[in-house]
Amino acid sequence: MTTMTEQLIFEHSRPGRQAAAQAPASAPTIDDLPATAMRRTALGLPEVSELDVVRHYTRLSQQNFSIDTHFYPLGSCTMKHNPRACNTLASLPGFLGRHPLAPARHGQGMMACFYELQEMLKTVTGMAGVSLTPMAGAQGEFTGVAMIKAYHEARGDYERDEILVPEAAHGTNPATAVMCGCKVVEIPADGDGDVDVAALREKVGPKTAGIMLTNPSTLGVFEQDILEISKMIHEAGGLLYYDGANLNAILGKARPGDMGFDVIHMNLHKTFSTPHGGGGPGSGAVGVGKRLLDFMPIPVVGRDGEGEGTTYRWLDERDVPHTIGRLSAFMGNAGVLLRAYIYARLLGREGMTRVAEFATLNSNYLMTRLKAAGFDVAYPERKASHEFIVTLKRQKQELGVGAGDFAKRLLDYGYHAPTVYFPLLVPECLLIEPTETESRETIDGFVDAMIAIWDEARVDATTLTEAPFNLPVRRLDEVAAAKNLDLKFEAETGDARSVA
Amino acid sequence: MSEIPKDLSYAKTHEWIANDGDGTVTIGITEYAQGSLGDLVFVELPEAGTKVSAGDAVAVVESVKAASDIYAPVNGEIVEINEDLDESPERVNEDPFGQGWLFKMAVNNADDLDGLLDAAAYGEIVDAEES
């Protein structure tokens, strides 16, 4: 990896330089816009040659830590390999060229894909209906709680405004509840990392709108009392929301619908391997039980007829009478949904089960090896799900190096850092998720690096506390970055924005 | 072992409470709490005049690692906030029991203060978390 810091594309700019391939053949004339809408200053675009552009972006891509270049055990993010076939097939001209306003009869192929994806997601999660439109995990969560709220209101049950959230939950859960106008009631975890059922019983009541659970939880363990919790919430008149963040661990092996969940969101960009990172585009498809079928966001794809006479159509307010409405102008992130559909078809029924089997096998193998090397696991008595937590509290006390320092040093060894300092319950924690697409050799290499880093800390802690050493940028000043965020480029000399 | 002044009261959620003797209390977070959070980058404080109940989340301290709620230890009303923290949240790290105080409350019922932890009881909580 290069240690050179790449300049901004604006710093490569030289007046008059251009890439012939992109230069307009003739100067455009614009005479149909009112003068008030016209720019008076030139666009501040960089002036660079084609070769400048190619080298700049190639160098940037070489400095990137990505799943295509590095092991990426970022807990709770499911950074698995994205099969290239999904991208190739989703990029077929028939898919790319379809205009979202084209009539349904011209989009039957694409709609068939969406319909089949809905059906496959229903089957693998045990839900009665699926809507694919939410465009990210957070929007899927919002959809889920908005449906729970709409369900209670449709029944005239206006007093239910409390959403129960375990303390280890993703921060998006309480945020979602608040966005939907609910109050958050926090539920503690017990010593094994499960929801404290006794504490839950005290908080459940006539104001309970629902509970948001991640299962396996953010602590990396399967909720052992899920059936009891489910019964308790339903008896109190509340509904259960399943946060699909960790669905990869149980895909095809256990179904949220069978556990009693009324609504679930699935991060297709995690479990169904569509590309993610850097803000998307994501996909937070939702599945619902029978009670919420009439509340799903639209559009949903419906099917009429059988065999050769089969046609697909967009279901709207007439088909979904209590729908919470539309979350985007069209069919969510359609291109992402196609990739998820192709991924599901490539796996097939048996392959989907293997996802969960190998995700948990890899995770338990990695956990067992790190334990054997002397690392402390947060819940040593529990089996890992698809991820697990290592706590470096002892290393922090004995050697003065914590989770953040191990994470920075791992970068020097060519590994993307695991998730650090989440969940907040566990001090100095690394949340590690290898995913099913990694080989034993890769995982062994990561274990070797962790052992080597611990050894380095015993010799000289600064090897960790001042890491990384081998990357384009060294240790960042996180306080300054948070307090004095400065993202605007100002040319030191001359005006990089002026265009001749 | 972090510093736990004997003349202060504590909450198990790591706030310290100083009885100002005039019906008000001053509230901050402990040395142990600031150390666990790491460098603070932002402190969100309530508005003076806000009426709060014991256990309400009334403020937020955000570090490079995490954002954490600060809870009102007793029923009462916010009477003053530490406005310096807007510009200089690092005061909480540098001097948690002094210049890093967060807010002052008028207490509804002085007897409520008897329910708070003393230094020894809070010390046991810290010991349990550190072991």
UniProtKB/TrEMBL annotation, chain A:
<dbReference type="GO" id="GO:0005829">
    <property type="term" value="C:cytosol"/>
</dbReference>
<dbReference type="InterPro" id="IPR015422">
    <property type="entry name" value="PyrdxlP-dep_Trfase_small"/>
</dbReference>
<feature type="domain" description="Glycine dehydrogenase C-terminal">
    <location>
        <begin position="356"/>
        <end position="458"/>
    </location>
</feature>
<dbReference type="Pfam" id="PF21478">
    <property type="entry name" value="GcvP2_C"/>
</dbReference>
<dbReference type="GO" id="GO:0019464">
    <property type="term" value="P:glycine decarboxylation via glycine cleavage system"/>
</dbReference>
<dbReference type="GO" id="GO:0016594">
    <property type="term" value="F:glycine binding"/>
</dbReference>
<comment type="similarity">
    <text>Belongs to the GcvP family. C-terminal subunit subfamily.</text>
</comment>
<dbReference type="InterPro" id="IPR049316">
    <property type="entry name" value="GDC-P_C"/>
</dbReference>
<feature type="modified residue" description="N6-(pyridoxal phosphate)lysine">
    <location>
        <position position="270"/>
    </location>
</feature>
<keyword id="KW-0663">Pyridoxal phosphate</keyword>
<feature type="domain" description="Aminotransferase class V">
    <location>
        <begin position="159"/>
        <end position="277"/>
    </location>
</feature>
<dbReference type="InterPro" id="IPR015424">
    <property type="entry name" value="PyrdxlP-dep_Trfase"/>
</dbReference>
<protein>
    <recommendedName>
        <fullName>Probable glycine dehydrogenase (decarboxylating) subunit 2</fullName>
        <ecNumber>1.4.4.2</ecNumber>
    </recommendedName>
</protein>
<comment type="subunit">
    <text>The glycine cleavage system is composed of four proteins: P, T, L and H. In this organism, the P 'protein' is a heterodimer of two subunits.</text>
</comment>
<dbReference type="InterPro" id="IPR015421">
    <property type="entry name" value="PyrdxlP-dep_Trfase_major"/>
</dbReference>
<dbReference type="InterPro" id="IPR023012">
    <property type="entry name" value="GcvPB"/>
</dbReference>
<dbReference type="InterPro" id="IPR000192">
    <property type="entry name" value="Aminotrans_V_dom"/>
</dbReference>
<dbReference type="GO" id="GO:0005960">
    <property type="term" value="C:glycine cleavage complex"/>
</dbReference>
<dbReference type="GO" id="GO:0030170">
    <property type="term" value="F:pyridoxal phosphate binding"/>
</dbReference>
<comment type="function">
    <text>The glycine cleavage system catalyzes the degradation of glycine. The P protein binds the alpha-amino group of glycine through its pyridoxal phosphate cofactor; CO(2) is released and the remaining methylamine moiety is then transferred to the lipoamide cofactor of the H protein.</text>
</comment>
<dbReference type="InterPro" id="IPR020581">
    <property type="entry name" value="GDC_P"/>
</dbReference>
<dbReference type="Pfam" id="PF00266">
    <property type="entry name" value="Aminotran_5"/>
</dbReference>
UniProtKB/TrEMBL annotation, chain B:
<keyword id="KW-0450">Lipoyl</keyword>
<protein>
    <recommendedName>
        <fullName>Glycine cleavage system H protein</fullName>
    </recommendedName>
</protein>
<feature type="domain" description="Lipoyl-binding">
    <location>
        <begin position="24"/>
        <end position="106"/>
    </location>
</feature>
<dbReference type="InterPro" id="IPR033753">
    <property type="entry name" value="GCV_H/Fam206"/>
</dbReference>
<comment type="function">
    <text>The glycine cleavage system catalyzes the degradation of glycine. The H protein shuttles the methylamine group of glycine from the P protein to the T protein.</text>
</comment>
<dbReference type="GO" id="GO:0009249">
    <property type="term" value="P:protein lipoylation"/>
</dbReference>
<dbReference type="GO" id="GO:0019464">
    <property type="term" value="P:glycine decarboxylation via glycine cleavage system"/>
</dbReference>
<dbReference type="InterPro" id="IPR000089">
    <property type="entry name" value="Biotin_lipoyl"/>
</dbReference>
<dbReference type="InterPro" id="IPR002930">
    <property type="entry name" value="GCV_H"/>
</dbReference>
<comment type="similarity">
    <text>Belongs to the GcvH family.</text>
</comment>
<dbReference type="InterPro" id="IPR011053">
    <property type="entry name" value="Single_hybrid_motif"/>
</dbReference>
<comment type="subunit">
    <text>The glycine cleavage system is composed of four proteins: P, T, L and H.</text>
</comment>
<feature type="modified residue" description="N6-lipoyllysine">
    <location>
        <position position="65"/>
    </location>
</feature>
<dbReference type="GO" id="GO:0005829">
    <property type="term" value="C:cytosol"/>
</dbReference>
<dbReference type="Pfam" id="PF01597">
    <property type="entry name" value="GCV_H"/>
</dbReference>
<dbReference type="GO" id="GO:0005960">
    <property type="term" value="C:glycine cleavage complex"/>
</dbReference>
<dbReference type="InterPro" id="IPR003016">
    <property type="entry name" value="2-oxoA_DH_lipoyl-BS"/>
</dbReference>
<dbReference type="InterPro" id="IPR017453">
    <property type="entry name" value="GCV_H_sub"/>
</dbReference>
